[in-house]
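#onboarding

Welcome to the new folks! Below is a worked example of what a typical request in this channel looks like: someone posts a single protein sequence, and someone else replies with the predicted structure as tokens. Don't worry about understanding the tokens yet, we'll cover that in week two.

Example request:
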Amino acid sequence: MNPFKIFLKKNKSDKKQLKELKKYPCDCYLSNALYFIETGEIDVAYKEICYAILRSGGKLSDSQLKKFNELKNKRGVTCRDL
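Example response:
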């Protein structure tokens, strides 16, 4: 199953966020993750890595998806802000 469809099933009302996710290449998310690791913002880095995995067509495990869903609701600087 397409990881974007899984993402939508978990967040049916969040199609706008999925559209945003598709705008940026994986290296953008990964570069941001490195920056956030350097600055100690591990939660934001984790979220960026999850976005990169989903963007590249990969899947998150159940535990990763649970943590990702918790973190994505927190406001943090992302690729869209840099």
